[in-house]
User: Fold these one by one.
Assistant:
Number 1:
Amino acid sequence: MKRLVLVIALALLLLPAMVVAHADSVVPVAGETIAISGIATQTSGSGCCTHGGPFTGTFTLGAAPSGMDWPVTALSIDSTGFGCSFGQTQCAALVWTISLQFDAGNDTLFGTASVSFIGGGGDHRFLTITLIDGNTTTDPWTNLDTDVPDHSNDRAGTLSYNVAPVPEPSTLLLLSSGAFGILGVIRRRFRA
């Protein structure tokens, strides 16, 4: 009888952890860095080249808000997918001008981010990403070639992205598995 009570008590204690472990949502914390990855697709441009592709990066959350929308204080994205190709070192570790917020209710970003960088041919470019309605393929980006007066080498397109959840749910699942393992060992010892 004591063992049955112990098993029921342990199950009740671990149930909330197991429910949280299945959550796919990011649990925001002030100052936390969150990974972002996605695909940029070119829909217009000079037609000289094929551009667009995957991108990765991170963003950092600011102070906790009163609602669900967290300010984004830093953003770093590898802009290869936006036309910064040919192995240019200036394409990585970009300093962004950002006006972004993170909606913790649906794990999406909204607002704009832009930066100047040196493109594949050594030309100066101004990349702007506009996140309107979250993780969709309709969020636009533009890549303006400021070295060409008529902007004939400008590019534009759409993007989709996702953010990586914090590892907390996985940790809780691991903890729950370990606790059940210990329970199994205790049960075997009582039976022996």
Note: The two ends are 17 Å apart (CA to CA).
Number 2:
Amino acid sequence: MKPRSRQIIFGLVILLLISLGTVWFLERREQPTVDLPEQPSEPITLEPDEPPSEVFPLVSLPPSEKVPQLKELAENGNVLDQNRARYLLAVIALEQQNPDQALQWLNELEQGYSRLSDQILLQRAKAYELKGETATAQDIWRDITSGDRHRAVIAEATYHLGKYNAQQWEYLIREFPEHPRTHEVIRNKLEANPDQLDLLRILAQYHPEAEGMTQQRDRMVDEYEEELTSKDWQIIADGYWATNEFEAAAEAYANAPKTPKNLYRQGRGLQVNDETSQAQSVYQELVDRFPDAEQTGLALRRIAEMVSDEQALSYLDQAIENFPKQAPTALTHKATRLENQGDTEAAEKARNRLLQDYSTSDAAAQYRWEMAQAQAQQGHFSGAIQWANVLIEENSRHSNAPKASFWKGKWFQQQGNQQAAQTNFQQTLSQYSYSYYAWRSAVYLDLPVGDFTTVRQLNPEVEKPRSRPFLPAGSQTLRELH
């Protein structure tokens, strides 16, 4: 097993043990332990005004288990569940290469199941195609494309029509460039004839992070440089940036329109590639061209990273005074530069301003944690606890908060205050149950979650959800299909 896979599995085990330990701890703390009977699976409802569904809990079951229950619901369930069961039975029949049975389940189903009417038509066409009755299948697809339907459904039908009339694929590419079926067609066309810049443009714009797109962007730059427009360069640059190819992104942004975002990304790509002189020049162009843009404040901070302490202070002061979002981090960097110059008093003023004016910022949370650690390393546990308390209060959503909460307990232990330590571990477990430090706290609370030497020996029982969770947003059709 690869190291990364082992890390993922270990992390999942830890999260499961945290959950089990938290439940065990709360039950032990709040009520006597009793054996409760397993709760029956309750029907689930998608919309507040419709009857509960007995179909949804069956979706994730293997066909051998769910088909008999779906058939029963198709006959005796409530009206909506009858439709849902029939649709699922049709899908299963198609998966099992049984188009005749699928057509029986789909017969006139769209009349009572309007929320999936388009999908029912697509499944019916698929069944006829599977039977070899391709003319009937094409009639259904043409009916779909001629109606007032969702773009995604029309594109799917057009794709299938293209298998019998290549002109339909040309229409698909022209009218539905964003659709995955379009990208499938384009890739097949490029495999047959790679010299098609217009098709490469579509993939670069609508599918920039797909496998192999780096090579396609490289081809566009190497083979079609003279034909690329500023819009092309923008698309290519954004694609390189999205896939963390910063050197190539910087070169592409140099040919894209001069916008604040593009100039910043060009400079950042150069800086990451250690081309500091060119990066500084691009950042300065951003500062001069767009003095009030949001990216300008970040550019000032980046320039400060590449110059001397004295020069950096000027850039950082501009960021602090003119760009509030950059001010907290800029104040931290300013304090460091002032310390490098031996001006500890001014550095302390900068940090005090950080804590007073930007108390809830990430930079303040990081500084507080650094101070708590420094106090603890010097044996000043009371001071470390004070810094941790302020961090937890002012920066409760920062990633350092659960860490500070846990280490508060450790520092109380160092002081010999076991009761305060236990209370703090309990608070960490309850308030930050999602974090690694909840597990560490659970160990100190003697919960059955294992420790660094025993956790691999545990074999907790995994209880899978009885049904898929509902999508929190999206159309009724999307949520129903999910």
Note: Confidence is low (pLDDT under 50) at residues 1-10, 12-41.
